[in-house]
Write a structure and sequence with these properties.
mainly alpha, elongated
């Protein structure tokens, strides 16, 4: 969503919002992955090997 905002309204504010949102979301995902690893252990590790974190990016 923030990338689309930056594409339609390219300026320093939307660039800052896009970078801030992307970094914040990445940090949240890393925390969530740690939680899932503690809950599901090896089963989650196996899942992570099969499924990319971000769409098609491993």
């Amino acid at each position: 969503m923030s990338v689309g905002l930056f594409i339609t309204h390219p300026n320093l504010l939307t660039l800052f919002v896009t970078v801030f949102f992307t970094v914040s979301l990445h940090r949240l995902i890393l925390q969530e992955e740690k939680h899932l690893e503690s809950m599901f252990g090896e089963e989650y590790e196996s899942y992570k090997k099969k499924v990319p974190r971000y769409l098609l990016i491993r």
